[in-house]
UniProtKB/TrEMBL annotation:
<dbReference type="InterPro" id="IPR003445">
    <property type="entry name" value="Cat_transpt"/>
</dbReference>
<feature type="transmembrane region" description="Helical">
    <location>
        <begin position="352"/>
        <end position="370"/>
    </location>
</feature>
<keyword id="KW-0813">Transport</keyword>
<keyword id="KW-0406">Ion transport</keyword>
<feature type="transmembrane region" description="Helical">
    <location>
        <begin position="75"/>
        <end position="99"/>
    </location>
</feature>
<feature type="transmembrane region" description="Helical">
    <location>
        <begin position="14"/>
        <end position="32"/>
    </location>
</feature>
<feature type="transmembrane region" description="Helical">
    <location>
        <begin position="194"/>
        <end position="213"/>
    </location>
</feature>
<dbReference type="GO" id="GO:0005886">
    <property type="term" value="C:plasma membrane"/>
</dbReference>
<dbReference type="Pfam" id="PF02386">
    <property type="entry name" value="TrkH"/>
</dbReference>
<feature type="transmembrane region" description="Helical">
    <location>
        <begin position="233"/>
        <end position="252"/>
    </location>
</feature>
<keyword id="KW-1003">Cell membrane</keyword>
<keyword id="KW-0472">Membrane</keyword>
<feature type="transmembrane region" description="Helical">
    <location>
        <begin position="410"/>
        <end position="429"/>
    </location>
</feature>
<dbReference type="InterPro" id="IPR004772">
    <property type="entry name" value="TrkH"/>
</dbReference>
<keyword id="KW-0630">Potassium</keyword>
<feature type="transmembrane region" description="Helical">
    <location>
        <begin position="44"/>
        <end position="63"/>
    </location>
</feature>
<feature type="transmembrane region" description="Helical">
    <location>
        <begin position="382"/>
        <end position="403"/>
    </location>
</feature>
């Protein structure tokens, strides 16, 4: 009885353990000679870094994926991206459904937390829809990209690249195989290609809005008023962030990286570069060449990230909106957080504040550590790298390959926390539960 209780894991603990095991298995496979083009073992720390980046759908790399890894290694990375994007609980449920196994109440509870669903009822049906929707979207993207790539790469390579980049984009991973043309070039080769830009951006946005929003759109189609409050907040925030950011980016870079390109490429590059920080990691312009203002905008977008229950990272759009609403309510001297004619529950502000505080605290500690460990690195590059890692974005100014073992381990921890959630990691580590039945006396303090 005691042994059974010991292994009765909560979802945060199961999530941390599950992702950790997947990363370790991936690292072992990637370190094998069969995974590299030169047929030699690679340092385990680099294999671990790549596995963590793929599983946590980040995209930061110490090796160019195409030129360093063999086809086997690339397929391992692709599998890690797919598992990491969907979450191991959804993948496990997929196998249980395929084997016609019964899914119990405990498993349904884990699924509910995995997809950030409000209700446990219908969570298995929601999971089925997630799986169907994922493979459908990835399939459509893969077909379009395969046709496009086949013209310049040949049919076999075109199909392979189409599938790889579709899955990577949908899962917001940012891994690419464009090293065949130039190492670490991402999608800069296609900055003026309308079709590839639109397909990749569409996959990133669809993957980043979250599974709950998918279900709402599936059930209610275009009837926005019938959507859940969560879906309304996500869709409106996503739209406003894209529109406002693209205007800011365009004017910041029109005399910099966009100066010598046509109006179509300016528009595509501006749109792409404000969508990909939330949190895909692809880029069609050189990140290191961006103005300081654009880098700051990119970091802000990386911090916000995508939406709850999605393949994206960051503090999430709903957390960002709650923090804005708390400021508005304070200015209006109102105790309630109101939006779209609804009042948010009391605990949501506490949860939101905790997420933001932990997120920024972990990021700042990581910056201090890397700055102390490698003082030769530029602080601005370190800040960008840290927010890219904890936001599971994968964009870099070029310092990833320059990190030493200690700094790489710190980035691995950040990617891990970013994918699972820093709050979830802390909850998994902590065994403390508040069982005190009495409350302490109230006393006022001065704030601000």
């Amino acid at each position: 009885m005691q042994l059974k209780k010991k292994f009765n894991l909560s979802y945060p603990k199961l999530s941390v353990l599950g992702f950790f095991l997947i990363i370790i298995i991936g690292a072992i496979l990637l370190s094998l000679p069969i995974s590299s083009r030169d047929g030699e073992f690679i340092p385990f720390i680099n294999a671990l870094f790549t596995s963590a980046s793929a599983t946590c759908v980040t995209g930061l790399v110490v090796y160019d994926t195409y030129s360093h890894f063999s086809v086997f290694g690339q397929i391992v990375i692709l599998a890690l991206i797919q598992v990491g994007g969907l979450g191991f609980m959804i993948i496990a449920t997929m196998f249980l459904l395929a084997l016609r196994k019964k899914i119990g109440i405990k498993e349904r509870g884990f699924l509910k937390e995995s997809v950030n669903s409000v209700h446990i009822g219908g969570v298995v049906r929601l999971t089925k829809h997630i799986l169907i929707g994922t493979f459908l979207m990835e399939g459509i993207g893969a077909i379009i990209l395969s046709i496009k790539f086949s013209y310049e790469m040949g049919m076999a390579a075109g199909i392979y690249n189409g599938v790889f980049h579709s899955v990577s984009a949908f899962c917001n991973a940012g891994f690419d195989l464009m090293g065949r043309y130039s190492k670490y070039s991402s999608l800069t080769r296609y900055s003026n290609d309308t079709l590839i830009n639109l397909v990749i951006m569409f996959l990133i946005v669809i993957g980043g809005i979250g599974f709950i929003v998918w279900e709402d759109i599936y059930k209610h189609k275009y009837k926005f008023k019938k959507y859940q409050l969560h879906s309304k907040i996500v869709l409106c925030t996503t739209f406003l962030l894209i529109v406002c950011s693209v205007i800011i980016f365009y004017f910041m870079e029109m005399n910099n990286v966009l100066e010598d390109v046509g109006i179509k490429e300016r528009a595509l590059s501006s749109l792409f570069q404000v969508i990909t920080p939330r949190t895909a990691g692809f880029n069609t312009v050189d990140i290191a060449s961006l103005s300081e203002g654009s880098k700051l905008l990119t970091m802000i977008l990386m911090i916000i990230g995508g939406s709850s229950g999605s393949t994206a990272g960051g503090i999430k759009t709903t957390t960002f909106v709650v923090s804005i609403l708390s400021v508005v309510s304070l200015i209006r001297q109102s105790e309630d957080l109101n939006i779209f004619g609804r009042r948010l529950e009391r605990g949501v502000l506490k949860q939101s504040s905790s997420i933001i505080t932990i997120y920024l605290s972990v990021a700042l500690l990581a910056m201090l550590f890397i700055s102390f460990n490698q003082p030769e690195l530029d602080l601005r590059d370190i800040v960008f790298e840290v927010f890219s890692a904890i936001g599971t974005v994968g964009m870099s100014t070029g310092i990833t390959s320059s990190l030493d073992i200690a700094s790489k381990m710190m980035i691995i921890v950040l990617m891990f926390c970013g994918r699972i959630g820093s709050l979830a990691v802390i909850m998994a580590i902590s065994n403390h539960t508040n069982t005190v039945l009495t409350k302490s006396p109230v006393e006022k303090i001065t704030i601000g």
